[in-house]
Design goal:
The chain is an alpha/beta fold and 378 residues long. The chain contains 13 helices and 12 strands. It folds into 2 domains: 243 residues, Aspartate Aminotransferase, domain 2, CATH 3.40.640.10; 128 residues, Aspartate Aminotransferase, domain 1. The protein has a 7-stranded mixed beta sheet, sandwiched between helices. A 5-stranded mixed beta sheet has the order 8-9-12-11-10. The structure holds pyridoxal-5'-phosphate.
Length: 378
């Protein structure tokens, strides 16, 4: 029987254990696995850096959810990004979106720049910028949609088509959407990256990352070797926590996306707000593309507060339900002044606050934002 993605997600890791019939997966902490009398690893496992039964369960689930051929779980989203960059060689060009998550940009520019990777950043909302920047030396085109923190939308199909013409690998950071909202392989991407730390984990208690490959191609083999040899693998307990998180992903996302839409509409009409960035709003520049490639519009939005940057910081510090903290995708709502955490090289507007919508009642969230915004109106 063909299952929907929501059903696949709800059942991750729940098939009965062959020995005990347990409906929750075992956490295999063993680092090594015994050979049988003939000297073979007949159990299928050798050493946990290479493969681990709990990690394998999670990797198979991620492969199925994204509709790919192979997944690898890493110790963080950044470790997954690092493995991709390590698979490239000096002189290779990589194309990044101008408003990409600042950690990935910094890793590419500050570390891999001196290893010989040539990094270029363009505004990918305009396809002509991508086409102009592509050369035969472009080996990797990185998309992040919606982007962090300006929530801008990139047309995955259009960029993938252009990138494939020069033979570049297309990677989509799908952290903010998850496959329940967008499945990048259906639009032509080769690789999907996740910070498991966010929606998959879903409870702000797992640090992890993943790469999923559409095909078992050369890049996939190289990155798999890097995962096993460099060893930044996800530990078994975090794999188990991630599978537990994925089982409730569909209901969490449904609620978070619904509340984000209500908040976006409310804040758009608020006198203290200059602009709301949320692709669910029909006035948002990304709305049309988002409607084509997203099933829901996501649980993240950004707002620009009228007045000084100090006013924006004051709003973030005076909320009751929204914790003033970095990260996103958990059950609790978070808010953050991104320019502060990104540092002096940040290109994020100084009056921008990023909001991760949690599972609280949306009425409480509205009341909370309203009282904090009133403080800056005074
Ligand atoms: C879009 C995106 N990609 C990747 C990462 C990095 O993930 P991690 O913090 O798990 O290393 C983050 C972290 O905030 C992110 O927001």
């Amino acid at each position: 029987m063909k299952s929907s993605l929501e059903t696949i997600a709800a059942r991750v890791g729940t098939e009965p254990d062959l020995e005990t019939r347990a409906l929750s997966p075992s956490i295999h902490l063993a680092t090594t696995f015994a050979r049988d009398q003939s000297g073979n690893h007949s159990g299928g496992f050798v050493y946990s850096r290479l493969e681990n039964p709990t990690r394998q369960k999670l990797e198979l689930a991620l492969t199925e959810l994204e509709g790919g051929a192979k997944a690898m779980a890493f110790s963080s989203g950044m470790a997954a990004a690092n493995a991709i960059f390590q698979a490239l060689k000096p002189g290779d060009r990589i194309l990044l979106p101008h408003d990409i998550y600042y950690g990935v940009k910094s890793l590419a520019v500050d570390f891999f720049g001196s290893w010989g990777l040539v990094v270029e950043c363009v505004d990918m909302r305009d396809l002509s910028n991508v086409k102009k920047a592509l050369t035969v030396a472009t080996r990797l085109v990185w998309l992040e949609t919606p982007s962090n923190p300006q929530v801008s939308i990139t047309d995955i199909r259009a960029v993938s088509t252009a990138a494939r013409q020069v033979g570049a690998t297309v990677l989509v950071d799908n952290t903010w959407s998850t496959p329940l909202i967008t499945r990048p392989f259906e639009f032509g991407a080769h690789v999907v990256l996740h910070s498991i730390t966010k929606y998959f984990g879903g409870h702000s208690d797992v640090l992890g990352g993943a790469l999923v490959f559409a095909e078992n191609d050369d890049m996939c083999s190289k990155v798999s070797a890097i995962q096993q040899k460099a060893g930044a693998v996800l530990d078994p307990f975090s794999c188990w926590l991630t599978m537990r998180g994925i089982r409730s992903l569909a209901v969490r996302l449904e609620r978070q996306c619904r509340s984000a839409m209500i908040l976006a509409e409310y804040l758009s009409a608020h006198p203290s707000i200059e602009q709301v960035h949320y692709p669910g709003l029909s006035t948002d520049p990304g709305h049309e593309v988002a409607s084509r490639q997203m099933k829901m519009y996501g649980g993240m939005l950004s707002v620009r507060i009228k007045g000084s940057p100090e006013g924006a910081k004051q709003v973030a510090s005076n909320l009751y339900y929204f914790a003033n903290a970095t990260s996103l995708g958990g059950t609790e709502s978070l808010i953050e002044h991104r320019a502060s955490i990104e540092g002096p090289s940040s290109t994020t507007p100084q009056n921008l606050l990023r909001i991760s919508v949690g599972l609280e009642s949306v009425d409480d969230l509205i009341a909370d934002l309203n009282q904090a915004l009133q403080l800056v109106q005074k």
